[in-house]
Write a structure and sequence with these properties.
Blueprint (H helix, E strand, L loop, with lengths): L10 H13 L4 H9 L1 H7 L16 E8 L4 E4 L5 E4 L2 E7 L5 E7 L4 H13 L8 E4 L8 H4 L15 H4 L1 H4 L4 E4 L9 H13 L24 H6 L6 H16 L5 H5 L7 H7 L10 H7 L2 E6 L5 E3 L2 E4 L10 E7 L2 E8 L5 E7 L11 H26 L2 H7 L29 H41 L1
Parallel strand pairs: 1-6, 6-7
Antiparallel strand pairs: 1-4, 2-3, 4-5, 8-11, 9-10, 10-13, 11-12, 12-13
Protein name: Integrase core domain-containing protein
GO molecular function: DNA binding; transposase activity
Pfam families: DDE_2, Mu-transpos_C
Length: 472
Amino acid sequence: MEKKWEGYPSIKTVARYIKHVMDELRGRNAHYLAANGMREFKNHRMLKGKRDATALMVMEFVQGDAHTFDCWVQYTSPNGKIKAIRPVLVAWIDTRSRCILGDVICVNANSQVLKESLVKMLYSHPGGVPKHLHIDNGKDYTAETNTGQNRKERKMQELDFDSETKGFYRSIGIEDWSRSLPYQPWSKAQIERFFGTICSMFTKWMASYTGTLTGSKTSGKRKKDIPGMLERGELLTMEEFYELWTKWKNEVYHKREHSSLKKDREQYITPIELFEHAERYVKAAPPREYAAMLLMKADTALVRNQGIIKFGTLYTDYELCHYIGQTVNIKWDIDDITKLYVFDKNGKKICEAVSAELLQFAPRMSQAALEAHLKKQKKQVRETKEDLEWYQTPYELRVQNEQGTPAVVGGLDLAVRARRNNNLIQLPDDKEFREELKAGSNSKKQKQHKDSNDEFFNKKAQSVLEKLRALG
């Protein structure tokens, strides 16, 4: 028999029942989950553990992310147009000391900006080579050129190839990296808290502050006439804003007592003091030249009869004639695309191809250009014939003719004790960098050997001449 209500319960009765469900039956979390969804529940209601940062060494665990400032600055585009933008900060924080490392300010954060930020961290103070890098889940941080693997794979793989294959992070000496899961900012809590400190202690004091970008409360917004401020020249330029930011970071944030360091009962309670005095993970940074090469853009290109076509421009060099029809690796400086650095598949440097004026497709052509072109053609035919003759020579004859030639020249004699170098650096295992370094070393040794031979023969000739004069 269906039970019927004898009467409707009062509002107070309903309120008491709801309070009973929420308090006695612990229904508040269930209500929050149903009302706000799983993402908000994880952010605000899910249990979280506290990390023991004191167990880490300085530079052992570094977190990185990007932050959009809640203020506006004046920016001049490459085409000369002036506009107002929100600057973006790309920075890293040392989990143990809370020091800020490798901070750069840009218009848009991309993988190239992240590389420049990491390079700044390597060679600046405070900074160095971190042991473990914890990165954001964004596509710029997890790009394949940075990690060396598809961003769908979350664990770091063992990679044994060159910088383009194994990723920028491993190439500069970082042993391990991890990435935070989507919509879980607590996995990089220190850097997220620092961004909150930026809003409360730095950005709010800017005249162009307009409130938090992601704030849900209308009261947190500030109405400003940004177009009018831009027109009147009241906005700071990017350079002026960066100077203020650097001054605040170095003189205020790094030197003030940090509440988290107090709670952890650290001996040093300012970020810069703890960074300089606590136990530190130390690893030598790679040479600056190698880091500069890693910052270059990379691609592959087909070598044609005329050279390499890139950016709609022809790049030429004589050495490319040996690779016609083959695909080679190329690198270029994003600030100077007049030159391509060309490497073979094994990482050996082939040449530096330059962009020059094409031979004129016209009835008249300069004599100098024609003679230079014909000379290159004759040289190519001559060297190709010599190579063909060498390949057609039986193996026994080639070995007999090459007995007096060592297989390797210019190698390092490990039996000789080397002088200690105080400026210690880590030699990268990148094939392209090693080949270029080796080529420069060999040319220098050949010049020194030639000079020593000339000096020896001059002394012998002078001695013989003196003896002849004595006889005469």
